[in-house]
Amino acid sequence: MIELEGVKKIYYMGKIEVPALRGIDLRIDSGEFVALMGASGSGKSTLLNMIGLLDTPTSGRIVLDDVDVSSLNENERADFRLRKLGFVFQFFSLLMELSALENVALPMIMDNRSHERAASLLELVGLGDRMNHTPNELSGGQQQRVAIARALANEPAILLADEPTANLDTESSHQIVDLFRELNGRGQTIIMVTHEPELGERADRIIRLKDGRVMM
Ligand code: ADP
Ligand code: MG
Description:
Blueprint: E1 2-13, E2 16-28, E3 33-37, H1 44-51, E4 59-64, E5 67-68, H2 74-84, E6 85-88, H3 100-105, H4 114-124, H5 140-151, E7 158-162, H6 170-185, E8 189-193, H7 197-200, E9 205-210, E10 213-214
Parallel strand pairs: 3-8, 3-9, 6-7, 7-8
Antiparallel strand pairs: 1-2, 1-4, 4-5, 9-10
The chain binds adenosine-5'-diphosphate and magnesium ion.
């Protein structure tokens, strides 16, 4: 479960304050598939980065999986991020020298079964026959599926995706959302940022942001 209370984020550009989040109260249950929507600059990435512990709020409280993450120190945050959170980004962020299999195995908490588990994750995302290809031998949609398999490496409680389809054609975009639906069917909690209405509507719930606030 994800709970935010009065989360504010102000960026500083020199002495100028840029309020990106103006007080977010939010609750997302385990097992939900939520789309985060809103105009460019409305605070979607900032909010996702707060939930993903990639950045800290200026004020407010965030509780993830019964842990008040606002009170964690930097090491504890990094540990929580590694064990509990999975990230998918707009630009797939794969290592181009490594095979699909090696990319997926990379973030795994070390054990001698990591290649076996990476292989089964690639099967899960439909790339069982492409494991030894490097990213430049794969289409954009396939590369994003490798990135999703990598995000699932440590069985995260929450999968966070920031505009995962922004660089994909319509068909590949829907395939990514198909995959999210399938993962969600297996119980995966997913938060997906998108500005494409027909993709957002395929989530269980849409949370709309406007000027750093949740629209009611
Ligand atoms: P979205 O993802 O919805 O397009 P963002 O969360 O990226 O919106 O940005 C929200 C607001 O915060 C915007 O006004 C943006 O310009 C500002 N902003 C985002 N990141 C920074 C930063 N690192 N420094 C200063 N301002 C930022
Ligand atoms: Mg953004």
